[in-house]
Amino acid sequence: MFSPASRYGIAGATLALWALTACGSSSGGGGDDPTTAPTTTQAAAKDKGPQCVGEAPADGVRVLRGGGFRLPGGGGVQYAAAGADGTSRTATLRDGAGYGAGQRQWTVKPGSRLTVSGHAYTVRQVCSYRVVLEPKEAKDKAALAAAPESMEFAGGAADNPLCFTTNRAVLAATSKSFPGAGQALALLANGGVKQLPTGPSLTVSYIDTAAGTAGLGANCAGLPVALYKGVRVGDTVEFAGVLFKVSELTEQAVRLTRTSE
């Protein structure tokens, strides 16, 4: 058990559910699912790698580890768990962000195809920190890239066009709210929240200095969009299209260094 001096926790958010159908190797589903909830993230054991497999298209949908992404047509998908054996990488995608009877989940790799609420996607990249999907239909690509009516956050689902988008203007505005490339972002422990003006709110869910691990989360439009558990110094995380490397863990804060432009 961790000592109080080395671990801080905050309450988790209740996650929304979506409908998802997919083709690929199924690892659960239907009314005969077990009554215990599947885990949403890997254990804290060091990831075997490789970090990423496949290539991410510039306009791909980035679904972050442990979080969900609302998609055109009312559906959504969550990156529930990761797997790696040192040479290949897989991801578990699930039909909802919280466990419930009748849900299903699938193990996918680059090239796997999904159908979410009647909309087709191809898995283009699987990383320890994200899965990148490419819509098959031009209308879905256009819907994801559509400009929002306003760049101001209103709260809740009204912010979907700002939180679940591939629009370059929105992503650029969010990128500017972070420190520049090579600079550090400190996230305070013990319930501190970093609220971005045009992006998600970031939190540290716990820090375990004895194990050298921490948990980081992000919420946007009332939905958890990332939940990185068991991250270590040197690990990569992503928030709103911006990449960071975990550079320091202390009892007071997690320090991230921006690695993308």
Provide the β-strand percentage band.
Answer: 35-45%
Shape: globular
**Averaging pLDDT over every residue, what do you get?**
83
How does the helix and strand content classify structurally?
A: mainly beta
Helix content: under 10%
Distance between the termini: 40 Å
Uncertain parts: 1-43
| Count of helical regions | 3
Q: Give the helices and strands as they follow along the chain.
A: EEEEEEEEEEEHHHEEEEEEEE
Description:
With 261 residues, this protein is mainly beta. 8% of the residues lie in helices and 42% in strands. The chain contains three helices and 19 strands. The protein has helices at residues 138-145, 160-163, 168-176; strands spanning 21-22, 25-30, 52-54, 61-64, 68-70, 76-84, 89-94, 102-108, 113-116, 119-127, 130-135, 184-188, 193-195, 201-208, 213-220, 223-231, 236-239, 242-249, 253-258. The strands form four sheets. Strands 1, 3, 4, 9, 10 and 11 form a six-stranded antiparallel sheet that branches. The N and C termini lie far apart (40 Å).
What topology emerges from the helices and strands here?
Blueprint: E1 21-22, E2 25-30, E3 52-54, E4 61-64, E5 68-70, E6 76-84, E7 89-94, E8 102-108, E9 113-116, E10 119-127, E11 130-135, H1 138-145, H2 160-163, H3 168-176, E12 184-188, E13 193-195, E14 201-208, E15 213-220, E16 223-231, E17 236-239, E18 242-249, E19 253-258
Antiparallel strand pairs: 1-9, 2-8, 3-10, 4-11, 5-6, 6-7, 7-8, 9-10, 10-11, 12-19, 13-14, 14-15, 15-16, 17-18, 18-19
